[in-house]
C-alpha cells in the first residue's frame, strides 16, 4: 500500500510561494513583450525584423545562463543564485524602460534574459531538494499550476497596459513585483550553508564554451526556421548541433564534474522521464502557439481575446497539476502520465473536426488537464530517479531538453500549417494541423509507459529536506 503523502510544513509553503512568484514573473516577460512588438516598431520607427530581436535576445540570453544554473547552485548556494538572478532581471527591466532606440532596448533585453534564465531552473532544483522524494511531485505540481496561466495573463495584461499607458509599462510593471519577490526571498529563503561551494570548486570551462553557445545556436535556428530554412538558420543549427555533440563527448569522458552530468542518463528512469519531458515541451509549447493563432485567423479574435480564450486550457492544467503531482508521489509517474496523454486525444479532436462553441471549450479544458497530469507526474519522476546531490545538475538537463522540445514543436506545427495552407483555406489547414496534435496524444501516452512505476517506500521525514545547494 502506498504511503500517505506528508503534509507541507510552513517553511516549505513559504518557499513555494516565494519562488513561484519570481519564476512566474519571468514567464510573464516573454508573453507580455510579444504583445508589444507592433507598438515598439512604431515607437522606435524601426522594422519588424529588428524589433523581433527584443524577444530573440531575451531567449538567447536565457539559453546561455540556464545551463549554468546547476553549477551556480552548487558553487554559491540556491539563495545567492536566486537573488542574483532576480536582481539582474529587475535591473534589466528598469533599463528597458530607459531605452532610447531599438539597439539599446535589445541590449537591455539581453541583460534581463541573463537573470531570467536562472529563475526557473533554480526554482525547480530548490523546491525539489526542499520537498524530498516523497513530496516532490506534489510540490512541483503546486509550483507549476500558476505558471500555466502565464500564456493567458501575459497577452491580456500586456494589451491592457499598452491601451492605457506608454510602452515602458510592459517592462516597468514587473519592477515592483520583482522587488517584492526579492524582499520575500531575503526574508524567507534559508541561508546558504557555510560549506556551500565545496561540491563545485571549479567551473567546467570547456563545458561553458561548448554547451551554452550550442544551446543558444540551436534555439535560434529552431525559432527562425518558421520564417524559412535560410543559410543563417542552417549554419546556426549545424553549429549548435556540433557544439552540443562536442559537449556530450567532453561530459562523458572528463574526470571532473561537468557543467551538466550526462552520465545521469545511464539511469533508465531519468532518461525515460527527460525523454517524455521533451515530448511534453513539444506539445505544450506547440499548443500555446497554435491555439491563439487559430482564434485570431479562423475566429477573427484580437490578441487579448485570443489570450482569454486560452483560459479553459489554463484552468484545466491548474486543476490537474497539484492533484497529479500528489498522485505520482504515491503511484509513480507511469499510470497518471499514460492517462493524461490519452486525454489529449478527445481534447484535440473537436478542433481537428472543426467543432466550436461549448464542445471546443470543453476540449480545451481536457487538453489542459491532460497535459497538466503528464507534466506534473513526469517532472516529479525526474527528481525521484537521481540522487538528491545531483538534483541541481539534473535540472539543467531537463530544462534544456524541455526548451528544445518546445522550440521543435512550434517549428514543426508551423511548417505543417504553412504546408496545408498552400492547398487549403485557413480553417481546413488548421484542422489538418490539429490532427497532428491528436496523434501526439497517442505518442505521448505510449511513451509514458516507459516511465518508472510506484516509487520505493522511504522513511517518512518530519522536516523539510535541505534546499538544493545547501549542505
Automatic annotation (TrEMBL):
Bilayer-crossing residues are 49-69, 81-100, 106-127, 139-161, 167-191, 203-223, 229-249, 270-291, 303-320, 332-353, 359-383, 395-421, 433-451
Which PROSITE patterns does this entry report, sorted A to Z?
MFS
Looking up Gene3D superfamilies in the UniProt record yields: MFS general substrate transporter like domains
Gene Ontology CC: plasma membrane
Q: What is this protein called?
A: DHA2 family efflux MFS transporter permease subunit
- Which NCBIfam families did the record assign? efflux_EmrB (TIGR00711)
Where is the protein found, in the record's own terms?
Cell membrane
Tell me the organism. Answer: Saccharopolyspora elongata
Q: Keywords on this record?
A: Cell membrane, Membrane, Transmembrane, Transmembrane helix, Transport
Mind telling me which Pfam families this protein's record contains?
MFS_1 (PF07690)
Q: Which GO terms describe its molecular function?
A: transmembrane transporter activity
Q: Which InterPro entries match?
A: EmrB-like (IPR004638), MFS (IPR011701), MFS_dom (IPR020846), MFS_trans_sf (IPR036259)
- In the UniProt record, does the keyword Signal occur? no
Principal location class: membrane
Q: Where is the Major facilitator superfamily (MFS) profile domain?
A: 15-457
Q: What membrane topology does this protein have?
A: Multi-pass membrane protein
Amino acid at each position: 500500500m502506498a504511503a500517505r503523502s506528508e503534509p507541507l510544513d510552513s517553511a516549505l509553503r513559504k518557499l513555494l510561494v516565494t519562488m513561484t512568484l519570481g519564476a512566474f514573473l519571468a514567464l510573464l516577460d516573454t508573453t507580455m513583450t510579444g504583445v508589444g512588438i507592433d507598438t515598439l516598431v512604431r515607437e522606435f520607427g524601426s522594422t519588424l525584423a529588428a524589433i523581433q530581436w527584443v524577444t530573440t535576445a531575451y531567449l538567447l540570453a536565457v539559453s546561455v545562463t540556464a545551463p549554468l544554473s546547476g553549477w551556480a547552485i552548487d558553487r554559491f548556494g540556491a539563495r545567492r543564485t536566486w537573488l542574483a538572478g532576480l536582481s539582474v532581471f529587475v535591473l534589466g527591466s528598469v533599463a528597458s524602460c530607459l531605452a532610447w532606440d531599438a539597439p539599446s532596448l535589445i541590449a537591455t533585453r539581453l541583460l534581463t534574459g541573463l537573470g531570467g534564465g536562472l529563475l526557473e531552473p533554480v526554482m525547480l532544483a530548490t523546491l525539489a531538494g526542499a520537498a524530498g522524494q516523497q513530496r516532490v511531485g506534489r510540490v512541483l505540481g503546486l509550483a507549476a499550476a500558476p505558471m500555466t496561466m502565464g500564456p493567458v495573463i501575459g497577452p491580456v495584461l500586456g494589451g491592457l497596459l499598452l491601451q492605457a499607458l506608454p510602452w515602458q509599462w510592459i517592462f516597468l510593471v514587473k519592477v515592483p513585483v520583482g522587488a517584492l519577490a526579492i524582499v520575500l526571498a531575503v526574508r524567507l529563503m534559508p541561508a546558504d550553508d557555510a560549506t556551500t561551494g565545496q561540491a563545485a570548486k571549479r567551473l567546467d570551462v570547456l563545458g561553458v564554451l561548448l554547451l551554452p553557445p550550442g544551446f543558444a545556436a540551436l534555439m535560434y535556428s529552431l525559432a527562425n526556421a518558421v520564417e524559412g530554412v535560410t543559410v543563417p538558420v542552417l549554419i546556426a543549427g549545424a553549429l549548435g548541433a556540433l557544439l552540443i555533440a562536442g559537449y556530450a563527448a567532453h561530459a562523458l569522458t572528463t574526470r571532473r564534474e561537468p557543467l551538466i552530468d550526462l552520465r545521469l542518463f545511464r539511469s533508465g528512469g531519468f532518461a525515460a522521464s527527460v525523454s517524455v519531458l521533451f515530448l511534453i515541451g513539444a506539445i505544450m509549447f506547440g499548443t500555446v502557439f497554435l491555439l491563439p493563432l487559430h482564434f485570431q485567423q479562423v475566429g477573427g479574435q484580437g490578441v487579448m481575446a485570443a489570450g482569454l480564450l486560452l483560459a479553459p486550457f489554463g484552468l484545466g492544467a491548474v486543476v490537474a497539476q497539484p492533484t497529479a503531482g500528489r498522485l505520482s508521489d504515491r503511484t509513480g509517474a507511469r499510470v497518471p502520465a499514460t492517462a493524461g496523454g490519452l486525454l489529449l486525444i478527445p481534447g484535440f479532436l473537436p478542433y481537428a473536426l472543426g467543432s466550436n462553441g461549448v464542445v471546443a471549450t470543453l476540449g480545451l479544458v481536457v487538453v489542459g488537464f491532460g497535459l497538466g497530469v503528464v507534466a506534473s507526474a513526469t517532472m516529479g519522476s525526474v527528481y525521484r530517479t537521481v540522487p538528491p546531490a545531483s538534483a541541481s545538475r539534473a535540472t539543467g538537463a531537463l530544462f534544456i531538453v524541455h526548451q528544445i522540445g518546445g522550440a521543435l514543436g512550434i517549428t514543426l506545427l508551423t511548417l505543417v500549417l504553412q504546408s496545408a495552407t498552400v492547398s487549403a483555406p485557413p480553417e481546413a489547414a488548421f484542422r489538418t494541423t490539429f490532427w497532428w496534435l491528436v496523434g501526439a496524444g497517442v505518442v505521448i501516452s505510449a511513451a509514458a509507459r516507459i516511465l518508472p512505476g510506484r516509487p520505493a517506500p522511504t522513511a517518512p521525514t518530519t522536516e523539510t529536506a535541505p534546499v538544493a545547494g545547501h549542505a
